[in-house]
Amino acid sequence: MSTHVLVLGNEKGGTGKSTLAVHLAVALAERGVHVVLFDLDERQRTSARYLENRVDFARRLGLDLPMPAFAVPGPEADPGDLVATAGAGVVVLDTPGRDSPQARAALSLADTLVTPINDSFVDFDLIGRVDPETHEVTRPSFYAETVWKARQARARADRGTVDWVVLRNRLSTLEARNRRRVGAALEALSRRVGFRIAPGLSERVIFRELFPRGLTLTDAAHLGEASISHVAARAELRELMRSLALPEPVAEPCR
């Protein structure tokens, strides 16, 4: 069985990376894909805590929720060994918001690399530098260079390619001019260094409410009365899944 490796990666915290990792893993499991999520941030272990909350919530209420397998392998674990032994249709590697040999190794294994960034030039600086007056891109930044090296390592290892997707996350309805400037800079940089831009998830209170119960936007039956915000958030997640074009079911449903 071929394993698709989905890596959530950047070197900045606070971009919603772990929330996104859990939502993608659960959405794939709901489709019937056998998913294993490895939380590579042993210290914060946010995605693992999220899924532990999900297990506890399902147990307390006697629910049969779609459930990816998950583990926190520790900083000495080799991501290649994790992927090789997972036996899954999709392996999700949630990397920490900092540089490490383990995180760089994970990048070179990615079939799909998702880099969520907040919609601001503070986060854009992770992947590219802009002129302070014109906001035109002047050069790629350190993380773009790290991904380039990971792509080279992947090509040498098995001639594979890394589909790099930059996701504009936590979009705000305010600051329209800033959004346009960030969007234009991303378009210019994407052509220069080779990534796709995907629609992300807007900033919504619901994401802060879901974590304690381990629920995701796919768990509509357990979220209570559906508000317009809930419906819009689920539509955003569906659009993101379409954009990523992740694998369809290859095994029995993961429950």
Structural account:
The chain is α/β, with parallel strands linked by helices and 255 residues long. It has a single domain (4-244), classed as P-loop containing nucleotide triphosphate hydrolases (Rossmann fold). Helices cover 43% and strands 17% of the residues. It is built from nine helices and nine strands. The chain has helices at residues 17-31, 46-61, 79-86, 101-109, 121-124, 142-158, 176-193, 205-210, 228-244; strands at 4-8, 35-39, 69-71, 90-94, 112-118, 128-130, 137-140, 163-169, 196-199. The strands form two sheets. A seven-stranded parallel beta sheet has the order 3-2-4-1-5-8-9, with helices on both faces. Helix 7 (176-193) links the parallel strand 8 and strand 9 (196-199). Helix 1 packs across helix 2. The longest helix is centred in the C-terminal third of the chain and has 18 residues, at 176-193. The protein starts with a strand and ends in an 11-residue tail after the last helix.
